[in-house]
Amino acid sequence: MRNHYKPDEVDVAIDWSSLRTYPTDGNLWDVLFHQPYAITSSRRTNEKVHVETISYFPGDFTNLSGVTDYGGDIRPEILAEGRRLVKKFIRVKDSILEKAIEFVKMRMSGFRKILAVHIRRTDKVSESHLNFMLDYEDFRVLTEEHMKLFDYDGYFLCSDDQKLKAYMAKASGSLCMTYDSLLSSKQGFPVHFDTQLDGYRKAEDVLVEVLCMASCAGLLSTISNVANSVLFFGNEGLPANHFYFHNLARMSPSFLRYRTERRKRSLQPVYERTED
Q1: Which residues is 96 bridged to in the sheet?
Q2: CA 202, CA 204: separation in Å to the nearest integer?
Q3: How far is 124 from 132, CA to CA, in rounded Å?
Q4: 3-state per-residue secondary structure call for the chain
Q5: What is the pLDDT of residue 253?
Q6: CA atoms of 99 and 171, how far apart (whole Å)
Q7: Which residue, 195, 45, 179, is CA-closest to 116?
C-alpha cells in the first residue's frame, strides 16, 4: 500500500477475492474494512486506482520480524510503520466493530486491568520453534505469573490450538476470558486451512479477537502475524506493555525453578511420586 499510494495522483483498493485460506464468493476486504481510497481521498481528485491483491505481497515472508524465528521479535521500526499505516489506511466496518464492542462490554468490563494473551500453534511449527518450546501448563504458569507481576486481574486468551484454549480456560477459571471463535475440529489442524469452515466467519472471528486484544492494557504473545496486528491496532500504551512468552521463559527465575522441579518429578519412579 505504501509503495503505490500517491496523494492526489493514485489511490489504492484491496482485492481479497482469491485468498486460499479464507475462500469466499466475493471480496473479503469489503466485508471487513472500508477501501483505502474511501479514507484517503474524495475520489474526485484521483483518476487512477491501483488494485492490490495477494500477488503483490512485498518481499520474503520468512524475513518478517515478529512473524518467524528467523525474523526475530518485532523491530521498533516495523512496529512504528505498521501503526502508521493502520492509522492512515485502515477503517474496520461498523458491523465488525459492534461485535467487538459488545464482547468487551459483556465479558471484559467487569475487570480492572486485562492482559491480552495470544498463542499461535498448529502449523506455525514450520516457521517458529519458539512457539512450541512451552507446554500448556507452562503457558498458564507464565501468564498468571506475569499477571501478578504487573497487577492484571484477568486475561483474554486467543489461540488456534483448541485443546490449549480449553485447558487454560479450565485451569485459570474466572481469570480467563475467551471468544467463541471458529476453530478446526481436527486437533492441531490450522483453522485458516480448514476449507470445511466458512471463510467469512473465520476472518470475522480473528478480526474481532484482534480488536478486543487491542483494547487491553498489555499483550503477552508468541510470534505471529496476529500478534503483530494487535500491536498495530492497539491503544497507545499497548506496545510498551508487550512481552513474548519465549523471552519470559528465559528471564524468569521463578519459572525456571518451577520447570526444573516439574522435570525432576517427571523423572521420579512412580512409587516415589505416589508417596507425596
Answers
A1: none
A2: 6
A3: 9
A4: CCCCCECCCEEEEECCCCCCCCCCCCCHHHHHECCHHHHHCCCCCCCEEEEECHHHCCCCHHHCCCCCCCCCCCCHHHHHHHHHHHHHHCCECHHHHHHHHHHHHHHHCCCCCEEEEEECCHHHHHCCCHHHCCCHHHHHHHHHHHHHHCCCCEEEEEECCHHHHHHHHHHHHHHEEECCCCCCCCCCCCHHHCCCCCHHHHHHHHHHHHHHHHCCCEEEECCCHHHHHHHHHCCCCCHHHEEEHHHHHHHCHHHHHHHHHHHHHHHCCHHHHHCC
A5: 83
A6: 27
A7: 179
Select from 189, 194, 241 the least CA-distant residue to 214: 241
Extract the C-alpha cell encoding 40. Answer: 484517503
Going from the C-alpha of 92 to that of each of 152, 159, 183, 190, 211, the distances in angstroms are 28, 22, 23, 25, 10
CA 104, CA 208: separation in Å to the nearest integer? 10
What is the average pLDDT across 89-101? 96
Position 146: which residue type?
Answer: H
Burial class of residue 115 in the structure, from the number of CB atoms within 10 Å of its CB (0-12 exposed, 13-18 middle, 19+ buried):
buried
Dig out the grid coordinates for 73 from the structure. Answer: 521479535
Closest CA to 113 of 71, 158, 147: 147
Question: For residues 21 and 199, what is the distance between their CA atoms, to the nearest angstrom?
Answer: 8
CB 248 within 8 A of CB 146: yes
pLDDT tens readout for residues 115-163: 999 999 999 988 899 999 999 999 999 999 999 999 999 999 999 999 9
CA atoms within 13 A on the CB side of 12: 19
